[in-house]
Amino acid sequence: METITYDILIIGAGPIGLACGLEAQRAGLSYLIVEKGTLVNSLYNYPINMTFFSTSEKLEIGGIPFTSVHPKPNRMEAMEYYRRVADAKDLNVHLFEEVQQMDPQGDLYGINTNKGKYKARHVIIAVGFYGIPNMLHIPGEELPKVRHYYFDPHYYYRQKVVVVGANNSSADAALETWRKGADVTMVVRQQELGSIKYWTKPDLENRIKEGSIKCYFSSNLAEIREREVDVQTPEGKVTLENDFVLAMTGYQPDFGFLQKVGIYLSPDEKRYPQYDPETMETNLPNVYLAGVICGGMDTHVWFIENSREHAVKIVQHIVREQNVTQA
């Protein structure tokens, strides 16, 4: 089969990847979006009852209105919105197609996936950070009872559940599983709860205060076994009966892929990728970053509402370059 050449190949079909496709389409450029999972794969992996902190207009892309029944939309509404955008604009998206290799080929880039081969004049990397969990690095973490993703609380009915973490995901998992009949214990490394949605935090604080949800602060999960766990507390080690561990310890971008294709990362623990904030172009000519990937390990810097502009910057830069070349 003949290899198709696109003006832009976009890696990632999250909201920002879709926004890049919309801008390319508006500019009359040929493009393809490839995604290793389903459409807006990160949102799909969010907890089933998740409510966004942002209002619906801040989640809009391409100037297409997002209407929601509630002041803050939920996961189901967001997925419905992005599906409708993809259909209404007939976006060129290939799902469940993973990029395996990307190499410069003269003025083009050759991209090999698990389903095909393509060439592109420009590449936009708009992958998220939800695919690789931050590990605990403790004995027993490999057991099937340990989950780094929390989806539906019903599964944990009448189970003894340990929730690790102190932020939004941990708070949601603890409250929702408790309400569905789980015996919940939280293990929090800090001295207090972290950054939690303002409508959730008082609820969790009250449940901890009354003892409905147990919580060990300034503590760490030390070891996981089939039927119990060890928690290292300021007072010493505590052993708890346990059925499931929900390790809500955050996630990180696929730094391995960035390094594999040749994008420079800062040598410190933040691992910031190198790019021009005015154009979003990386150290690789005609390769751009968009969305949360730009923040390295600071995964709470870029959101949908403040990185939608990346799509506009990138496509405007590509169009300017093409106009100069053609002049």
Automatic annotation (TrEMBL):
The portions of this protein that span the membrane are: none
Any coiled-coil regions, as ranges: none
Kindly give the InterPro entries that the UniProt entry links to this protein.
Bdr, FAD/NAD-bd_sf, Ferredoxin-NADP_redctase_2
Q: Does the keyword Flavoprotein apply?
A: yes
Among the GO molecular function terms of this UniProt record, one is: oxidoreductase activity
Keywords in UniProt for this one?
Flavoprotein, Oxidoreductase
Q: Name one Pfam family in it.
A: Pyr_redox_3
Q: Which PANTHER family match?
A: THIOREDOXIN REDUCTASE 1-RELATED-RELATED (PTHR48105)
Q: What NCBIfam families does UniProt report for this protein, alphabetically?
A: Bthiol_YpdA
The name of this protein is Thioredoxin reductase (NADPH)
